[in-house]
Amino acid sequence: MFGTRLPRYRTRSGMFDDMVVAQIRRLNGAWPELVAPVQFAVEDVPPSDPAPWEAVPHFGSQCFPADHGMPSRIVLYRMPLQSHARSRMDLQFAIRDEVVSRLAELYGRRPEEIDPDWGM
Predict the structure, then answer these.
(1) Residue 62: beta bridge partners?
(2) φ and ψ at 11, to 5 degrees?
(3) Which of 25, 43, 50, 102 has its CB 3.0 to 4.6 Å from that of 57, i.e. a possible disulfide?
(4) What confidence tens digit (pLDDT) does each residue in 8-27 have?
(5) Is the full-model pTM beyond 0.90?
């Protein structure tokens, strides 16, 4: 009934993916040397058991440093982020904050250095 290009056709997961891509592109414009070598992924939920090195598990996202020929990776978890957001704008800010904080964690920087609007 609806064409594939109409807004109603987009699923919640598809819109989430689009928001993640928009944040990655925005940050890549400002920090290509930080963003380009990192692989980004979206999964529905975090793994049921946290990584052994994590004292407190992160339910919104997780980062994995480069290791044995594998590039650095940042994984965002869609359902926890969507469940805490009250609006589309809240979700966009949550995605921005997760991506920025994980990039900062990977590179040993403060999130405010990467994005001055982080956490606002």
Answers:
(1) 75
(2) -85, 170
(3) 50
(4) 567 888 899 999 999 999 99
(5) no
Q: CA 66, CA 34: separation in Å to the nearest integer?
A: 13
CATH label, 9-45+60-114, candidates 2.40.50.320, 3.40.50.880, 3.40.50.80, 3.30.2010.20:
3.30.2010.20
Pairing of strands 39-43, 73-77: parallel
Could you report the per-residue pLDDT of 41-95, keeping only the tens digit for each? 999 988 776 666 666 666 889 888 988 889 999 999 999 999 989 999 999 999 9
